[in-house]
């Protein structure tokens, strides 16, 4: 089968490799669509993981083979694939910190080499633990593979929204209106809160308004804090979701978030970046800083419900379609987006 193998920093190689062999409790999925995620791009561009690997984890496809002992799954079924599933027993899992679980981190779907998602291939193998524990999600007949590929990123965004305890009537600042920021705007609105978005690209500012933002501004606008005060009765926003890895965005968030509010680090910052803050800003204003990484097992059915019942319009986020062969071009496009680049989908 064909796969895009990570052979080193910025080296993707389109290769013929063997289709993964199944053990008795495993399932093989033919990948139909896989979303290109910012985290894939980081793993390709920075020396974070030893090559060779096959990345790609926002996977939707068709079951192509099942091991002898697999029950309840049949060849031909359409499924969204979760690349990690926690153990549900360790101290992290018992505290709902599923993405810190060793099983979650170490067991992954794979197309070969060190298991790393494996969606950037024609076939991906789903390990028994993931098969048994809810990692295969049936796709309803009226939902496309494209839409189904959004279940995983929806879960990740949903987790941040839930962690920040966003409730109806609140106002939320979303910094960055790329595919993730726009999904935040949709989810914030879905849960009855108001979203204010910022970005540098005029087209993305416009798009944020189109998908439901109450207001959207240029992130460089020096009057942004004043404008946000004006929209929030002089209070500032209840929550800021940082969807861009920018220290400027963080300081802006500090200026725009109300006393007692929350700032969520969602985007992954470059490792070398450090941010100096005066702790009294947090103490006197009681602002909570929190991080939200990856998805939550507990939100899996809600994430599926949101996508499969079209409670948010994930199709509005799709901008580009690339064959797997052209993954490198897709990555280039994501790094230097045009005014119309949002979510990029890859087709093996
Ligand atoms: Zn992702
Ligand atoms: Zn665990």
TrEMBL record:
Residues 8-346 form the Enoyl reductase (ER) domain. SUPFAM superfamilies: GroES-like, NAD(P)-binding Rossmann-fold domains. Its cofactor is Zn(2+). Pfam families: ADH_N (PF08240), ADH_zinc_N (PF00107). It comes from the Bacteria. Keywords: Metal-binding, Oxidoreductase, Zinc. Belongs to the zinc-containing alcohol dehydrogenase family. This is Alcohol dehydrogenase catalytic domain-containing protein. It comes from Scytonema hofmannii FACHB-248. The lineage of its organism: Bacteria, Bacillati, Cyanobacteriota, Cyanophyceae, Nostocales.
């Amino acid at each position: 089968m064909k796969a895009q193998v990570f052979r080193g920093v910025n080296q993707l190689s389109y290769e013929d490799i063997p289709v993964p062999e199944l053990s008795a409790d495993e399932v093989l999925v033919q990948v139909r669509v896989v979303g290109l995620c910012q985290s894939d791009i980081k793993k390709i561009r920075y020396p974070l993981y030893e090559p060779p690997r096959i990345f790609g984890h926002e996977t939707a496809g068709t079951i192509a083979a099942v091991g002898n002992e697999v029950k309840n799954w049949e060849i031909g079924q359409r499924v969204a694939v979760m690349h990690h599933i926690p153990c549900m027993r360790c101290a992290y899992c018992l505290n709902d910190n599923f993405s810190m679980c060793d099983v979650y981190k170490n067991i992954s779907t794979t197309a070969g080499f060190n298991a790393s998602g494996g969606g950037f291939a024609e076939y991906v193998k789903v390990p028994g633990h993931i098969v048994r524990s809810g990692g295969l999600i049936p796709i309803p007949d009226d939902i496309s593979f494209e839409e189904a590929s959004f279940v995983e990123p929806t879960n990740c965004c949903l987790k941040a929204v839930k962690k920040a305890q966003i409730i109806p009537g609140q106002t939320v600042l979303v910094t960055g209106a790329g595919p993730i920021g726009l999904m935040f705007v949709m989810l914030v609105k879905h849960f009855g809160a108001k979203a204010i978005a910022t970005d540098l690209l005029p087209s993305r500012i416009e798009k944020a308004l189109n998908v439901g933002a109450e207001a959207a501004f240029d992130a460089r606008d020096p009057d942004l804090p004043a404008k946000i005060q004006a929209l929030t009765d002089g209070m500032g926003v209840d929550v800021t979701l940082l969807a861009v890895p920018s220290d400027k965005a963080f300081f802006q968030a500090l200026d725009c978030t109300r006393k007692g509010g929350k700032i969520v680090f969602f985007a992954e910052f470059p490792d070398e970046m450090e941010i100096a803050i005066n702790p009294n800003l947090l103490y006197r204003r009681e602002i909570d800083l929190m991080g939200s990484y990856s998805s939550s097992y507990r939100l899996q059915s809600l994430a599926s419900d949101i996508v499969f019942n079209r409670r948010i319009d994930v199709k509005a986020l799709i901008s580009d379609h690339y064959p797997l062969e052209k993954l490198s071009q897709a990555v280039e496009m994501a790094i230097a987006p045009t005014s119309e680049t949002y979510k990029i989908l890859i087709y093996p």
